[in-house]
Amino acid sequence: PPYENGELYPNFATYEVRVRNKTVALSPIEFRLLRHLVTNPEIVFSRDQLLDSVWGRDTFVMPRTVDVHIQKLRSLIEKAPGHPQMILTVRGAGYKFQPKAK
Prior knowledge:
By secondary structure, this protein is α+β, with helices and mostly antiparallel strands. 33% of the residues lie in helices and 19% in strands. It has a three-stranded antiparallel beta sheet with strand order 1-2-3, with no helix packed on it. A two-stranded antiparallel ribbon has the order 4-5. Helix 1 crosses helix 2 (47-55). 21% of the residues are buried. The model has no long low-confidence stretch (mean pLDDT 89).
């Protein structure tokens, strides 16, 4: 796989994601969101940037939809979704992927 941190093993070629050695089923949007964040580590993306990159410019989706999908993704991959270590909120700016959990 192009990325692994000891807990998260996404395989972008096969669309499979393993978290702590268990396969996790992601929706197509969740998978694209994870792929976008993981392949651009530590870069902060605004909701609008994520909407354009993941949903596409031709789709009308409310910006808060990003928040809902981030929460769902966290519930699937984070040990403690309420205290995320991988998908972080940057207050007032957006979200980023932290490859090395702190």
